[in-house]
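Can't paste images in this forum, so I'm doing it all in text. The chain is below; anyone willing to post the predicted C-alpha cells underneath?
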Amino acid sequence: MLAKILIGVAGVLVLFVAVVATRPSAYHVERKLAVAAPADLVFGVLNDLHQFAGVLVLFGSPLGKLDPNMQKTFEGPATGVGQSYSWSGKEAGRGKLTIEESVPGQKVGMKLEFVEPMKSTATCALTLAGTPTGSLVTWSMDGNHNFIGKAFGMFMDMDNMLGADIEKGLAQLKTVAEGKQVAPFTFGDVDERGL
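Text version of the structure:
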C-alpha cells in the first residue's frame, strides 16, 4: 500500500516538473501613465538613479521604505549610462540597477539584477512621449524565469504581480515629476524682492 502511494506521489511530481519545464521562460510586463510634466523633466528623474530609486517599487513597497536599514551604494557618473544603484538589506534582499541606455527626453534603459532572495535579471525600458498636457510614460520589464519562477507563475499571475509594482512606481514617478513643476509667475504674485 505504501509503495503505491509513493509511486503515485512520484508520478505527480514528475508530471508537475514536466509541465513546469514546458512553460515559457520569457515574460514581458508593461504599463503606461500620463504625467502632467514635460518629457525632459520626467527624463531627468529617470536618468538619475538618486531620484529614480525613490520611485522604484519592489515587493509592493517603495524600495526606500521597504527596508529602512538597507545599505545603498551609488556608483558611476552623476547621471546616465553607467550609473548604478546597489542595495542590500534584510527585507529588500540584494540587487543592483544600472542605466544601460539613455536617449535624452525619450528613453532610459536599465538592467535590474536581483541577487537575493532569488537570483534573476530583467531589463526595464522607460520611454517618454510628449503630449499636449505633459508626457506619456511607458514602463516595460522583460526577463526570463528560471525553473522556480516558472513554477511560481503557475499559481500567481506574474503580469498582475509585477504590473502592480510598475503601476505603483509610475504613480510615485508622477508625484515626483509633477511636484518638480514650478508654478508660472502671474501678476499679483510677489517676486523674490517682495515687490
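The radius of gyration is 22 Å. Strands lie at 26-35, 57-58, 61-62, 71-75, 84-89, 93-103, 107-116, 120-131, 134-144.
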